[in-house]
Design a protein that fits this description.
This is Phosphonate ABC transporter ATP-binding protein. It comes from Dactylosporangium maewongense. Keywords: ATP-binding, Cell membrane, Membrane, Nucleotide-binding, Translocase, Transport. One of its GO terms (molecular function) is ATP binding. The protein is α/β, with parallel strands linked by helices. The protein has two domains: 173 residues, 3-Layer(aba) Sandwich (Rossmann fold); 74 residues, no CATH class. The protein contains eight helices and ten strands. A six-stranded mixed sheet has the order 6-7-8-3-9-10, with helices on both faces. The protein has a four-stranded antiparallel sheet with strand order 2-1-4-5, covered by helices on one side. Helix 6 links the parallel strand 7 and strand 8. The longest helix is centred in the C-terminal third of the chain and has 18 residues. The N and C termini lie far apart (44 Å). The C terminus is likely disordered. The protein binds adenosine-5'-triphosphate. Adenosine-5'-triphosphate (ATP) binds next to strand 2 and helix 1. Adenosine-5'-triphosphate binds next to strand 2 and helix 1.
């Protein structure tokens, strides 16, 4: 297998401990390119830690991790930055700069590929400005381009954050609880957007969620996590809400047992 047709993510026997806390236990998972995978689990089950490993933000305590065919744990410096450039991230708290315009926030997604500091929209190359406006159009916010980011609703801010992540032309998008701070309608909009963009750009999306309904509605594959372990890995299509709720219930019960 060549690097170019390798799976998006291959994790084997991954464990992570922080002092006495075991955040991940012997996790193995292969995600093929173009898949939309939902990591489902309660708070503290290890979803964020797993996503952070996939972007090289954490070093495993044990196990192997390959992303886009490359051993992420061995990369350093420029090689690590180059691989990270192929992996976009969106977060629960959006991480926009509220006093900057929406367009400037989107443009910052292109910074890794540019030299020198940039201040203001006009300091970015014309091609990047054109691309930023195109991405804003895709997320339905072209008319907000020159508005301050902190005047937007939460759902709109998350769509700006997605447009910013798309500026780096990622092959994988890691989304860590992207709708946890949003109301149900905005949550559906953001998840629909992620699905449509994934299909259009042939993106691999790995998204952590804690709501079963959203996971079943938007995931192709559900990976259930509990206490740092993968306890479920199944196509969403074959999973009924009742079954998923039972699994989730068991997660709750098991977690209650260990607390
Ligand atoms: N830097 C760290 N130092 C110490 N413990 C950590 C650290 N990061 C995570 N943990 C612990 O690892 C476990 C897994 O946390 P993680 O954030 O991955 O879970 P999660 O499923 O993403 O939960 P949430 O949805 O609340 O973020 C938790 O017990 C957490 O307290």
């Amino acid at each position: 297998m060549t690097v170019s047709d390798a799976p998006a993510v291959e994790v084997h026997g991954l464990s992570k401990t922080y002092g006495q806390v075991t955040a991940l236990r012997d996790v193995s998972l292969t995600v093929t390119r173009g898949e939309i995978v939902v990591l489902l689990g309660l708070s503290g089950s290890g979803k964020t830690t797993l996503l952070r490993h996939m972007n090289g933000l954490e070093t495993p305590s044990a196990g192997d991790l390959r992303v886009l065919g490359e051993d992420l744990t061995r990369l350093r410096g420029r090689d690590l930055r180059r691989l990270r450039g192929r992996i976009g991230m969106v977060f629960q708290q959006f991480h926009l700069v509220g006093r900057l315009t929406v367009l400037e926030n989107v443009l910052t997604g292109a910074l890794a590929g540019l030299r020198g500091p940039r201040i203001g929209v006009a300091s970015y190359p014309r091609e990047q400005r054109r691309r930023a406006l195109t991405q804003l159009d895709r997320v339905g916010l072209l008319d907000k381009a020159y508005q301050r980011a902190d005047t937007l609703s939460g759902g709109q801010q998350q769509r700006v954050a997605i447009a910013r992540a798309l500026m780096q032309r990622p092959e994988i998008l890691l989304a860590d609880e992207p709708v946890a701070s949003l109301d149900p309608e905005s949550s559906d909009q953001v998840m629909a957007l992620l699905r449509d963009i994934a299909a259009e750009d042939k993106l691999t999306v790995i998204c952590s969620l804690h709501q079963v309904e959203l996971a079943l509605a938007w995931g192709q594959r559900i990976v259930g996590m509990r206490s740092g372990s993968v306890v479920l890995d199944t196509p969403a299509a074959g999973l009924t809400r009742e079954t998923a709720m039972r699994i989730y219930g068991r997660m709750t019960a098991s977690l209650a047992e260990v607390q």
